[in-house]
Amino acid sequence: MSQARRDNGDDRSSALIGAAVPRPDALGKVTGAAMYPADLVRADMVQLKAVFANRAHARIVSVDTAAASAHPGVLAVFTAADVPYNRFGLIDDDQPLLCDDKVRFVGDRVALVAAETVEAAENAAKLVHVEYEDLPIVSDARAAMESDSALVHADRENNILGQVHIRKGDIEAAFASADVVIEEEFSTSWQEHAYLQPDAGIAYYEGDKLVVETAGQWLHEDRRQIAKMLQLGEDDVVIRYAKIGGAIGGREDLIVQPLLALATWKLKRPSALVWNREESIVGHQKRHPYFIRSKWAANKNGKIVAAQTELLADGGAYASTSVEVLKGATVGASGTYEIENVASDGYVVYTNNVPCGAFRGFGLPQAHFAAESMVTRLAHELGIDPVEIRRRNMYREGSITATQTALPQGVSALPVLERCVTEMESRFGPSTTLGRPSTGRANGAPLRMTPLSARHDIVRGVGIASGIKNIGYSFGFPDQATATVELYGEKEIDRVVLRIGAAECGQGAHLVMRQVCAATLNVPLDRIELIAEDSHESPNAGSASASRMTFMGGRAVKDAATAALQKFPGKDANATVQFRPAETTPLEPETGKGFPHFNYGYVSQAVEVEVDTATGLVRVLRIISVHDVGRAINKQQVEGQIEGCLAQAVGYALTENFQCRDGRILTPHFSTYLLPTTLDMPTDVYPVIMELADPNGPFGARGVAEMALVPFAAAVANAIHAATGAWVTQVPFTPERVLTAIAKSHNVEAVTA
After folding, report:
1. Is the domain of 423 the same as that of 442?
2. How do beta strands 684-690 and 160-168 pair?
3. Using one digit for the tens of pLDDT, what is the confidence trace for 151-178?
4. Is 142 left (phi over 0), alpha (psi -120 to 50) or beta?
5. Per-residue pLDDT at 699 exceeds 70
6. Rounded to an integer, what distance in angstroms lies between the CA atom of residue 480 and that of residue 341?
7. Distance of alpha carbon 642 from its chain centroid, rounded?
8. If pLDDT is split at 50, 70 and 90, which confidence band does 451 have?
9. Are residues 212 and 75 in the same domain?
10. Is residue 125 domain-shared with residue 149, that is, in the same domain?
11. DSSP letter string over 9-33?
């Protein structure tokens, strides 16, 4: 791929494109002046308290609110009967706002108490008496697949929420003729978004419009769902976003917003709701756990000839975006490789566990954990360097994917891999190996599994992995972003008003939109006035998700600014432009054939780990993460995105062991759910930015926000193998699991005490 693609034929980028311009929201955030949703609460507002089910699966026999309603200070106790349309969901309206007949997970809400004070609301909530009839709990995704399983949703024939089937070539013939065939099973767990700001918000009337001010990822989608629940016109509802303390997919689904809207709509008074951390962890969706069975084959020359994968995801109690996540994971099950014979079957099921939905990576971290582990295993079986087997099979321009269509233009998977190898040799040393322990112990010498008190045997290893992740909406869903640019001035542009409904979740999207606008118009950045946090004042730019906002929103801004500039000077020097990318298509049900994504990002990583073979503890020492970002609109922000994503990736791979048992969450606090701290992060993190311009992105930019999470767990797993000779197959790689894997690799029993 030529570096000449970089400029994309655009010479108006000025000094703004790529510049590390200071973020306008930084000072307010570090001084505490910035107003997050909980900061908006006033003492005269109605205070709300949700009554959680605390049952995984039960029929509601009765809800008695009399005692709660009579409690001093209580204004009302709302139940399902108070909700005009008591269903919501991003794709399927299958989740009740307040449960009417059944509860399906512990975080279901059955009532909402409205009172004059927080204390009165909390005390009254304890007085709401719900009589339940317990039902069989479906807590295991594999059991949920069985024909005799209890049904989570009684109106369905089974618990299968969605399924995807992909077929390319002749998989059985390929296995029969291959030189090497390997099989393995993998599993991953839930992951909590753990955004800094727990769920909170306020609602009030502004004239005849119902306003909900909170934190989310898509103004106009929040508005649509709330209007539908209350049977109002969308123009009667306004969504405003305060400062957002992180999202990462966790705020795509409605959480507290409709509860606030319901109370204010019924009482005609401003209301407020602030969840504590436990309520937030129990009440919103998570990353999907996956069970994955893989069977891959290669010829002795290192050509991967077949990849067969079965994926089973636990979707939890409600649909959220589970089917879309499954599609992404199933399409991505063969990784970044052009393989002639592919058979992938993906399933997602309802269970009585916490619902699962969008989370950074959107199914690809789970799928790539298996795929990249299998590629490295094939390399070891064949005696080929793990980098070399990737070179021989990696996607190139014009490659045909598992869905039997060519990749969109701008395939940089191989250049990204080569840059990663160059960086690895430079920073880790030219003698770095990806398959032998970097210790004084002779290769192949057995590791003696002895008690912790006896010794500490520290070994190091380096692993590599690559990844691919779509940018934007997919599978036939029509993606778009709309922006309005208004120019004011006589002979030169004195002031610019930019309107775009783009959520600023902390990723820096608002600064990127302003930089793109200012660079297109060739005006100073301080002349750009951005209106982006009000559904009534800003056009719909879609969600802050799918690594799409810089690409989609930025392109809409650039096109709108260009159109407005053509009218300047003049009284009507403004333009509203909707950008639509290339159309995608749904997958054919039987074969999975289709054009699922219009754009991709590419990443390769090298990770060095240290493993204590006496305790199983793994520490990440150094990370190289190479990304083709097309063009860095703000290089410092891109580096920050990569580094922040890697912190989440370290937690996902090593420490964040979210656990459920019989539908109950066993890790509802940060004291039991172990997030990585600064002490868990390596000091040597090298985000490497390549700029091979995307032909459709603004100034050549493409998305990057999710990419660093996609291959990371596999890179760590491969590094653990390089250090110990053990293959780990369960995410996260807890000390117990690592010890078990080491013991298995040396045919001994692990001793941990």
Report:
1. yes
2. unpaired
3. 999 999 999 999 999 999 999 999 999 9
4. alpha
5. yes
6. 34
7. 14
8. very low
9. yes
10. no
11. T----TTTTB--PPPTTHHHHHHT-
